[in-house]
Structure formats: structure tokens, C-alpha cells
Design a protein that fits this description.
This protein has helices at about 50-60, 95-100, 105-115, 120-130, 205-215, 230-255, 260-265, 280-290, 300-315, and strands spanning about 5-10, 15-20, 30-35, 40, 65-70, 90-95, 145, 150-155, 160-165, 175-180, 185-190, 220-225. With about 325 residues, it is α/β, with parallel strands linked by helices. It has a single domain (about 5-315), classed as Ribonuclease Z/Hydroxyacylglutathione hydrolase-like (Metallo-beta-lactamase, Chain A). A 7-stranded mixed beta sheet has the order 1-2-3-4-5-6-7. A 5-stranded mixed beta sheet has the order 8-9-10-11-12, covered by helices on one side. The longest helix has 24 residues, at about 230-255. It binds zinc ion.
Length: about 325
């Protein structure tokens, strides 16, 4: 099994994962697939220094096989904010919804969030989430090409299948599948060793996406966050999603608000996963998507709620 250390790891013949422990907020993985004198990149990173560091580490490969195509697996900044560092001729692919959602959280919003004094409780929480990243000077480069159904891109004769599997984690999720190596780059359809979170609210869509990936019987699965895995990792995430879906279904039947649902849900075996407060975002989005609650909460509101959720949990434990 591939060691979970920072940097480039060859996970199959001429296929690499870029891994970024510990996989928490913003510490995302990426990937590189090398064909004959051309390469395909899966995702850029959360800021320009991190993306530059990754591209430099890849240069031994990309000097002989330049990147011709790339995929943004989805619109969260930790998978696309580094796009501007790719050469202009690199064709960046994404689903149409991803190209739309990419404007939901501009880098300037995160820059402001991390450089403003938000008070004694919130400031340390936000700094812990995003304080390690530099959101200044990012000009978001949009993906160039959209695909609504499965598309095959070849890089130096090597086939990379781009498969839309949203709505799941976001509306416009897609994964990259390299059939000749049995490798799946799952983006944030997989958080391994951490808590999944949905911005689209469609947990059934996400569970179906897990089933699709398992159906490919992949030898290697590189998640958006966490260590490299295989089909067993996909099933672990599926377990979390079904547990939370059933819990939120019960909360809706009980007439609880989404905040009560997040506070009272029994996370069972998943309570000890890092970043468990993400249940706040998931409950909010599931309720909204189902039309149960049309509350409008900003990203900032949700951050406030997550910080409060953690304080409540820590008080209950002590
Ligand atoms: Zn991510």
C-alpha cells in the first residue's frame, strides 16, 4: 500500500498521486497520468505556493511529457484555485455544473475570512481550518471545456475517462478513471480517514456514485483527501453516507430543524472521525435540497455553527 506521506507517489505504472497529509480542511490530493510524451493532471491545489510546489515535484515527468489536459474534479477551491499556474495551452476539463459552482466561493472570500479578527472563539477555529493557506493574488482560471456525459481524453495515447458522478459531494462532481491501470481519482467523493461533507445535499446520489466506482473493481483509488485506498475505502465512505442519510431521514420525520438534527444525530462509529463537525454542513444542505428547510445560511454562518457544534460536543465529553 502507498505510504501516506507528503509528495508524489507512483500508484501504478506511470500514474502518480500527489498526497497531502493530514487530509483535513484544504489538504487535498491530486494526480498525474503519463502517456507517450504527454500527461494528464487531476486537480490543482488550494493556493499558488502549494500548486507550484506540486508542479515542480512533477517536473521530472512533465519535462519529458508536458501536461496537455487536466480535470477539476469539482469546484471546491482546494481542487482548482491553482489553475492559473497551468500553461495556457493546457485544456482544463470540468462538468458544466462545476464550471458554474466554481464562482460560489471566490478566493477573496477566504482571504477575508482568514485575515479578519472574528473574535476569541471563531478566529482560532477558522485559522485551524484555513490559516496555513495563502489566498492572496489568486485569479481563478475557469475550466476550458465541459462534459455532461462520460468523456474519454487521451494524453500521449493513454486513455483517461472523465465520468460525471454528481450531484453528490457537490453538484458537478466528476472522477478520472484510468482503465489500463485500474486507477480511480475520486476527488472529494472520497474522504478517507476524515468526515465526508456534502454541499449538494444529495446523499443518495453520492451513495450511487460509490456503487459505480466499486463496480469498476479498481485496483487503486486515490481519494480527494486522505491515504490511497481501494474499493474497501469506497465502501467505508458509503457506510458513513448511509448512516447519516438514515439519521437525517429520522430527524426530518421527527420534525427537528436542521440545527437540531446536526446536534442530536448519533454518529455511532463515525463520531471519532476528524472534522466530525462537518455534519452541520451536511444537515443544512440535505434539509435544503429536500425542501424541508429553506433557511439561507452563508458559508460564514455555517462556520459559526460548526464552531458551536464542536464546543457543544467537547462540553458533553468533559
Ligand atoms: Zn477537497
Amino acid at each position: 500500500m502507498t505510504e501516506y506521506t507528503k509528495g508524489l507517489h507512483e500508484v501504478a505504472d506511470h500514474v502518480w498521486g500527489w498526497l497531502a497529509p493530514d487530509g483535513s480542511w484544504g489538504w487535498s490530493n491530486a494526480g498525474l497520468i503519463e502517456g507517450d510524451r504527454a500527461s494528464f493532471l487531476v486537480d490543482t491545489l488550494f493556493d499558488l505556493p502549494l500548486t507550484a510546489e506540486m508542479l515542480a515535484a512533477m517536473s521530472e515527468i512533465t519535462d519529458r511529457s508536458p501536461i496537455t489536459d487536466a480535470l477539476n474534479t469539482h469546484a471546491n477551491g482546494d481542487h482548482c484555485y491553482g489553475n492559473q499556474l497551468l500553461a495556457p495551452e493546457v485544456r482544463i476539463h470540468a462538468t458544466p455544473l462545476c464550471r458554474h459552482e466554481i464562482h460560489d466561493v471566490p478566493p477573496a472570500m477566504l482571504h477575508q475570512l482568514t485575515t479578519t479578527d472574528l473574535g476569541p472563539e471563531l478566529t482560532p477555529y477558522v485559522r485551524r481550518m484555513f490559516g496555513a493557506f495563502d489566498f492572496s493574488d489568486i485569479t481563478l482560471r475557469e475550466p476550458d471545456a465541459g462534459f455532461e456525459t462520460e468523456a474519454t481524453v487521451t494524453a500521449g495515447g493513454r486513455e483517461v475517462r472523465l465520468v460525471p458522478l454528481g450531484p453528490a459531494h457537490t453538484g458537478g462532481d466528476a472522477v478520472a478513471y484510468v482503465p489500463d491501470a485500474g486507477v480511480v481519482f475520486a476527488g472529494d467523493l472520497l474522504f478517507i480517514g476524515g468526515t465526508p461533507v456534502t454541499w449538494s445535499g444529495d446523499l443518495n446520489g453520492w451513495i450511487a456514485a460509490c456503487d459505480t466506482m466499486v463496480g469498476w473493481d479498481p485496483a487503486v483509488v486515490v481519494p480527494g483527501h486522505g491515504p490511497v485506498t481501494d474499493a474497501s475505502g469506497v465502501l467505508e465512505v458509503r457506510g458513513y453516507l448511509t448512516h447519516v442519510r438514515d439519521g437525517l431521514d429520522a430527524s426530518i420525520r421527527a420534525g427537528w430543524s436542521w440545527q437540531e438534527a446536526a446536534d442530536r444525530i448519533d454518529l455511532g462509529p463515525y463520531a471519532r472521525l476528524p472534522d466530525s463537525e462537518r455534519i452541520v454542513i451536511t444537515a443544512y444542505n440535505v434539509y435544503r435540497t429536500r425542501g424541508v428547510d429553506q433557511d439561507e445560511s452563508s458559508v460564514m454562518d455555517l462556520v459559526v455553527q460548526m464552531s458551536a457544534w464542536l464546543r457543544g460536543r467537547d462540553a458533553a465529553l468533559s
